[in-house]
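Issue 218. Parser rejects a valid record. Input:
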Amino acid sequence: MTGNGQDDASSHCNHFVMRKKRYCRMTVKPGDKFCGEHQPPSEAAADKTDGKVRIVCPLDPKHTCYAHNLKKHLKICNARPGEALPYIEKGVNSGGKDDADLDSYKLLSTFSTNEIMGVIQKINKIFEELLDGKVTRKLATHGVVEAEMAKPEYGDKTKKHLKQASAILGLLVEYDLIKPNICYVEFGAGRGHLSYWLAQAAEEASFLLVERSSPKHKRDNKLDKTDDKVQRIRADIADLILDKVEAISRSDFIVGVTKHLCGDATDLALRCLSNVSQQQTKVLGCIMTFCCHHRCRWASYTGKDFFEGVDLTKNDFDMMCGMTSWATCGTGFSREKNSESLQTKTEILNERDKEIGLNRDQKEEVGRRCKSILNWGRLQYLEKMGFQCFLHYYVDADVSLEN
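Output the parser choked on:
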C-alpha cells in the first residue's frame, strides 16, 4: 500500500483480463511482472532463479501450472475428464448428424437484403396458411406460487420468475400432468427454482434436475433429499440417456419441464424424451417454454421434416433464427436515440431497415412469426410420436417477451 491508501500498481499482475476489461488484481513476488496463473510460459522458462517453471496445462491451454507439480495438478485440474457414467453417451440426442455443414451457422448480417425479403414472404405465407389462429393465449396459475407471490417483500424481478413458475404449474394441472409416482425432469434446471415449486404442488412425485453447470444457491437443497426423491445430475442434455438414470428407472411415468432452456437445448431435450425406450407409455408429456431462438441450430433442430415440407431450407432457417431477435430486442438504438425518436414522434430506421421496407412494429410481427414457425416444427415432431400438442402464450408480454 502507498501512503495515500492506494494499492501499489507495481505489486500487482500486469496481465490484462480481456473478459473483465481490467488488469489482474493478484499480487506478485518482488521483481516479478505476473502472478503464477498468468506468467507466460516462455518467460517462466527463461527465469529459473527459483528453479520453478510454469507450463501450459495439457488438459486446458487457458491456464498454466508448475512443471514439477504437473502430476499432482492433473489429478485436481477442473478440466480433467470426469468418471465414466452409465447415463452419458456423447451426442446421443444431437440428431445423429456429423456433417460439418449442418452444424455451421450464418449470421443474418451475411445475407443480402433480397434474400431476407424473400424469406419474409415465405414466412408470412406459411404463417397465414398454417398457423394463423393456432397459437392461442392460455394464462394459467397455481395457488402454491400465487400465495408466495402475495408477500409484500418481493420486487418486480422476483415476481416475474414467480409468475412464470405459477403459469407452468397451472398448465401442468390443466393438462392433467400432476399424478402420483411421476418423475419430473427439469431440463436446464439452473438453481432448481421451478422444481422447488413443483415439489410443493406434487408432493408424491420425484424430481430429476439436469444442468451442465454447477450453480451456487440451489433451491433444490431446500427439499428433503432423505427419501431419494430429488436427484441432480451434471450433464449436457445432448449426451443424456434417461433410461439409465436411477430416478427414471424407479418411476412409472416421466414428465419433462423447462422454464428457460436456450435455443437448441430445447431440441436436445425433446430428443432426450423421445429416446426413452418405453416412450409411448412412460412419457406422459412435457411443458416446454421456448426462448432464445437465435441460438437454435439446424443440426439439432427437431423440425427439419416440417421445414422441408413447406419448402424452407437451412439458409432460410439461419435467417429466421436471426430475425427472431426482432421480436424481443427493441430498436437496437441507444437510449438517447430512442428518447429523441419519442420526442420528435419520428421512427428511426437504419439503412438496412429502409431497404427491407419494414417499420418497427412490422419487424416485431415478423420476429414473432419466425418464433411460431420454429416452434410449430417442434410441435410437428412431437405429434409424429403420438402426442397431442398445443402452442400457447403462457404469460403476458410485460412479464416476458420470451413467452
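Fixed in the parser; the record now loads. The first helix runs from residue 41 to 46.
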